Amino acid sequence: MTAANTKPHINKTHLHFLLKQMVRIRRFEEKCAELYMQEKIRGFLHLYIGEEAVAVGVMKVLQEDDAVVATYREHGHALAKGLSMDEVMAEMFGKVTGSSRGRGGSMHIFDASKRFYGGNAIVAGALPMAVGLALADKMQNRNRVTVCFFGEGAAAEGEFHESLNLAKLWSLPVLFVCENNLYAMGTALSISESEQHIFKKAQSYGLAAVEVDGMNVVDVEAAAQKCCTAIRQGEGPHLIECHTYRFRGHSMFDTQLYRSPEEVSTWQQKGPILQLKQWLEHNGKLDEVEWQQIEVEVQQEIEQAVAFAEQSEFEPASELCRDVYLESA
Amino acid sequence: MTAANTKPHINKTHLHFLLKQMVRIRRFEEKCAELYMQEKIRGFLHLYIGEEAVAVGVMKVLQEDDAVVATYREHGHALAKGLSMDEVMAEMFGKVTGSSRGRGGSMHIFDASKRFYGGNAIVAGALPMAVGLALADKMQNRNRVTVCFFGEGAAAEGEFHESLNLAKLWSLPVLFVCENNLYAMGTALSISESEQHIFKKAQSYGLAAVEVDGMNVVDVEAAAQKCCTAIRQGEGPHLIECHTYRFRGHSMFDTQLYRSPEEVSTWQQKGPILQLKQWLEHNGKLDEVEWQQIEVEVQQEIEQAVAFAEQSEFEPASELCRDVYLESA
Amino acid sequence: MNHTEQLTYREAMREAIREAMQQDPSVFLMGEDVGHYGGCYAVSKGLLQEFGESRIVDTPLSESGFVGAGIGAAMGGMRPIVEVMTVNFSLLALDQIVNNAATLRHMSGGQLGVPLVIRMATGSGKQLAAQHSHSLENWYAHVPGIKVLAPATIADARYMLAMALVDPDPVLIFEHVMLYNRKEAVPKADDCPAMDQAVVRQQGSDITLVSYGGSLFKTLAAAEALTEQKISAEVIDLRSLRPLDTQTLFSSVNKTHRLLVVDEGWRTGSLAGEICALVAEHCFWALDAPPQRVCSQEVPIPYPKHLEIAATPQVEHIVTTAKQIVYR
Amino acid sequence: MNHTEQLTYREAMREAIREAMQQDPSVFLMGEDVGHYGGCYAVSKGLLQEFGESRIVDTPLSESGFVGAGIGAAMGGMRPIVEVMTVNFSLLALDQIVNNAATLRHMSGGQLGVPLVIRMATGSGKQLAAQHSHSLENWYAHVPGIKVLAPATIADARYMLAMALVDPDPVLIFEHVMLYNRKEAVPKADDCPAMDQAVVRQQGSDITLVSYGGSLFKTLAAAEALTEQKISAEVIDLRSLRPLDTQTLFSSVNKTHRLLVVDEGWRTGSLAGEICALVAEHCFWALDAPPQRVCSQEVPIPYPKHLEIAATPQVEHIVTTAKQIVYR
Ligand SMILES: Cc1ncc(C[n+]2csc(CCOP(=O)(O)OP(=O)(O)O)c2C)c(N)n1
Ligand SMILES: Cc1ncc(C[n+]2csc(CCOP(=O)(O)OP(=O)(O)O)c2C)c(N)n1
Ligand SMILES: [Mg+2]
Ligand SMILES: [Mg+2]
């Protein structure tokens, strides 16, 4: 893939938008980590820090009514898909104003109006759901894309296999995005997959697949653009393997015995925000004032979100059992 | 694969052995179909008729302590692995002298002493078991092969995916044999797999894989020989896709709406017994007397097995609950 | 269709599917061998010819995959009927059912719904041995977020599916393999009670026999045998295993003062146990004898007929146990 | 190890694994993140360093695959300890457990055995929400062919594994997530009762409280509160959920005449229901009040602490319900 023929038309506004989206996610999650320490956020908290280019790059090419299905590491996807930071933060706090009334927490962010389908905490468990959403679109003659994010660890599960086959067999409009961050919890890809190139697995289903530098948001966007265009033209499911890395532990409980600080810092040098920022600076497209403005705006948005979450109420315990079935609402 | 360099040394005795094994299985099953009509055999009965070359070709290259894991369509594998026809027939009758004390019937033939591990009726459910048997061999430094037979339909299940990955990842001595008879019950391969070459799927796991004419017992044997040699030399798991066809319905309940009689008869022309018999005759290696002798010997063995099964007792109902746990024996 | 004609359970189920597909273009049937093969138990025979491949969808062997796809399709506005050939294979789809279908509405704060119907055959009696004879309705009945039906009569086979399809939440329908060939006249739709109501199939005063699905007719036969022995048994058909219609249950026990539950599941942890526990909790003072149950023996179901019979509830066990309860 | 030292539940479990691995070269530990990560709940921390990669085997995410591989390895002469990280993910391996591990011995006419131990974390309490808070021990306790243990005390965490490994059949061990940090002195191995025995953890005469696993300590706390209110509660720790030690259970109820079962599973179809049914069947005439249960609310467990607490059994529910039973 050469820059010339596949990269989207790049202008400053566009790149600033991508940069700001990544910064929003980064700062939001840094704040979450802080709030976790303060015990405002509990349960499992899986940070996306380091991987922001994937969600941001892919989401840029989606249309409003395209669907997104993600994992328990989905704050970034939620924000990039356009969920309000207030609601996402309130969800982390478990407040009733949260995107899932606070019942889901970090791992289960949903927003039906934004076609954001979670927030799914069983590894690979949401792939079949994405296939089904796309099937419904195809059956109802709607030209929409369903994007399904998952980790490289999920690729070992049987559901990966079943879902890719179904998607291709029925030629469904799904974009599978594998976030290959090299580890599934503490299990390195090298000890979990006999074939470590996830995109090559797509061949066993006849699926079109590419790999891309997941630390480069423009590359991700370009790949997603190409795939989505093909999907919208009826060419069936595609897969993108994004090479990326999480800078933090798997969750807040992770002591990271399985990798060295050196490895982490090598990857940090290639960080998606750092990379884009440096490129923009180097090319005279970002000055300190502009950068500070992004930071300040993001800071304000986050402060507002925290305040919103803090001020919101918890759902009364008397409402515990509503929404188990529709009738009980 | 050319005949010259891979086919095993073929002599008349060898070929007669293969022919007789296939005839044993064919006649045994024809008898079973008859006995099913007489209601001596009940439950699900899945006939292997047409596919005999696969079990016979593969089993020829196995050593006594190699393990075999098969499906619910396993009479042929059981007989070829050396289980006594008496016990297999008694099992079909549900008699206590059967290989599984009659408790399993047609779908659950086991013989621990012959390392024949079923007789497994959940599609793809036995693949992980085969991986585990091979893992135990590897961990205990035993140079044995575990052969796992399954249908092309099973290749769509998640367990196929998980098992192939584990086997290759841990470099285990397993030979996966896919019996591609083009249908899973009434579902044609073309509507169940986006990539219809099962052996190509093995590439996603880095597994060595070949396809072979499953109607040609010598070809099957040659492929199995090659794979088993490699496995015994520590080269890890292999897969053989055998192109074959079942001449009968999926089970005795099948009305075969999904395929035409013409398709069946085309395949019958390529039948493994017919093919080998004609080749032998054409090359002056089988005369009518020899053929009749095979038929007569097989006939006697079957009559003896039926008599044995008829004369055997049912397990008393008072023993229903033994063997649920070891203590209750 | 003429409502007084006789239909088999299989035909009634097929009529129900056909009607649903005719009335609502968003309904489709998906599962292994539902199309070209005609359905493992021939329920969907002919429907492929009538509705075509886009609505009668043969799936590959991938239970988790296509049940999950059904969940997604339901969320996407379709009304899928997913056939999981038998309950035995549904174990492969349990994660999808329990972790997705059952949780999504609540977990999303009420935003999402999964209006999905999953049908599967259940039970033993066809000598299919250990891996093909499960009765795991109790497992599903344990899970909040899903509903579980067990139509036993032809009328219920004919009409419950439509009610399940109207329901906004995931509904599982269990069809006992030994019922498919039963034949009965089909009453009018209006005569079919709501899907969550238990029905008193026979009035009686000495003992309440509770059952559902494949065991119902054994229980009714036992009730008849008891009548000859001057014991008046009331027979309740649960119909819905989740939610349970405890009102019908408790009223009956409060009248008869005795309870026997018949359930093909293994005894320990059976749904029968739940019914006994509920009655012991709520009708304790009305009970004149310990609540009892006739269940399957705690053994993987064996292949030979005589052992399969020995392993599962039979009319004579029901009669003997009922007599013990009444005469103690 | 000094037997009077204090260990956490986590450490006790680790000691048990270590000891088993030292004593028997055919024992190995396999599962997701048991090695390099040190175990999801840090149970196996350090074992990789001690025993190496060939015996502490990190698996890919493929629950059905590696549980099935454990079954095969057990049949092939090894003694695998398979860790399925949590019961929530075990749904993906249910087919292997129910259709293979549980059936093979019987179905093969006694030829095969599956001496496999499967460990998994269970329960709620850590705000992990709907998909990570299941308590499905009752499902497993329903299945003939497997055994199910729920060590609650440090002593049981320390010694039950060895008994499970000696057992020739598949044994599942459930470790409640809220127990891992509990600390206690570890008694001598000889003082640990057989794995299939229930244990009276507190003697009492007015009511029998039955519990297991994570609910045991809530139940003991409730018993203490009841003592202050002059109610003498006997507390039974089931320890083994299959088989059930009904003798200990029935003796206690025959003495106290009252029963309350505490179980974190959803109420309908809970193991608590089974216990109530058993007691109603077998101790009916001894009962002075309806047997009752405190279970989880029938709702997917929500994330926020106050709702998680509202959804699951708490000491005050146990106390209130016990008082109602005793004073009625
Ligand atoms: C079926 C299942 N098994 C295990 C887990 C526990 N678990 C949560 S995340 C995770 C690692 C997943 O790795 P990967 O798919 O690479 O995604 P990443 O976390 O790296 O983004 C594991 C093992 C789970 N949630 N679901
Ligand atoms: C998990 C599971 N799903 C469905 C079935 C029902 N079933 C039994 S055999 C079969 C077809 C299997 O086809 P294939 O693997 O090609 O083997 P073949 O029967 O052709 O030898 C099906 C659907 C089953 N036994 N197990
Ligand atoms: Mg990863
Ligand atoms: Mg086939």
UniProtKB/TrEMBL annotation, chains A, B:
Annotated keywords: Membrane, Oxidoreductase, Pyruvate, Thiamine pyrophosphate, Transmembrane, Transmembrane helix
Reactions the enzyme catalyzes: N(6)-[(R)-lipoyl]-L-lysyl-[protein] + pyruvate + H(+) = N(6)-[(R)-S(8)-acetyldihydrolipoyl]-L-lysyl-[protein] + CO2
TM regions (residue ranges): 116-136
Gene name of this polypeptide: pdhA
Cofactor(s) needed for function: thiamine diphosphate
InterPro entries in the record: DH_E1, PDH_E1_Alpha_Subunit, Pyrv_DH_E1_asu_subgrp-y, THDP-binding
Pfam families documented for this protein: E1_dh
Entry-linked Gene3D superfamilies: 3.40.50.970
EC numbers on record: 1.2.4.1
Top EC class of this enzyme: oxidoreductase
Function recorded in the entry: The pyruvate dehydrogenase complex catalyzes the overall conversion of pyruvate to acetyl-CoA and CO(2).
Known partners and oligomeric status: Heterodimer of an alpha and a beta chain.
Domain Dehydrogenase E1 component: 21-314
Organism name: Zooshikella harenae
Name recorded for this polypeptide: Pyruvate dehydrogenase E1 component subunit alpha
TrEMBL record, chains C, D:
Sequence ranges assigned to domain Transketolase-like pyrimidine-binding in this UniProt record: 7-182
Cofactor(s) listed in the protein's UniProt record: thiamine diphosphate
Pfam families for the chain: Transket_pyr, Transketolase_C
Domain of life per record: Bacteria
Stored SUPFAM superfamilies: Thiamin diphosphate-binding fold (THDP-binding), TK C-terminal domain-like
Transmembrane segments: none
Protein keywords: Oxidoreductase, Thiamine pyrophosphate
SMART domains reported in the protein's UniProt record: Transket_pyr
Database matches in InterPro entries: THDP-binding, Transketo_C/PFOR_II, Transketolase-like_Pyr-bd, Transketolase_C
PANTHER family reported for this sequence: PYRUVATE DEHYDROGENASE E1 COMPONENT BETA SUBUNIT, PYRUVATE DEHYDROGENASE E1 COMPONENT SUBUNIT BETA
UniProt-listed NCBIfam families: PRK09212.1 (NF006667)
Protein name: Alpha-ketoacid dehydrogenase subunit beta
Species the sequence originates in: Zooshikella harenae
